[in-house]
Known about the structure:
Layout: E1 3-5, E2 14-17, E3 20-30, E4 38-45, E5 51-57, E6 61-64, E7 67-78, E8 81-86, E9 89-96, H1 98-101, E10 113-119, E11 126-131, E12 135-142, E13 156-161, E14 166-170, E15 178-182, E16 187-191
Antiparallel strand pairs: 1-6, 2-3, 2-6, 3-4, 4-5, 7-8, 7-10, 8-9, 10-11, 12-13, 12-15, 13-14, 15-16
Amino acid sequence: MSLLEYSEVIERKFILLDGEPYEVLSSHVFRMQQRKPQNATKLKNLISGKVKEYTFHQSDRVEEAEINKREIKYLYNNRGEWWFCEPNNPAKRFKIEPGVVGAGGQFMKPNIIVEMLTFGEEEDTRIIGLKMPIKVELKVVEAPPAVKGDTAKGGTKQVKLETGATINAPLFIAEGDVIRINTDTGEYVERA
């Protein structure tokens, strides 16, 4: 494992702090008046999901976490159980807890390939999260009709997607359209 300097702890890096893996959500290196520079970060614990703020000082070094990534295929979810399998072998099925799947699960349709993030040694491996593609294409199954002149609400309306998720989309989106969604923010990007 490599050691990171205080200024190398940046967004989307995985670090070990107190023996637990964290993902860096945000970082800001700054200097207050005549003091030494610091890096104010927001860290998400990959096991508990809690977010905390932590400041790294110039003399600090932190260990980079070894997060293993593996591609898996989403099959279905039923009664709160999310089922996945190996991409080339549907017989090797396993379930993942809803807390690990996270908010991105609402944009997963069957047979989508996602990355599974694991932490730990072979005998003590824990699944700590799923990494979705940044953009996914989904079909709109319900969309209220757009009323001419109805832009007082910013020109958006609630639409329902094929996965059951509801998002805000522009007024011109109609039922049957295929749209792209940003899985990080859960927002409409464009019509496909």
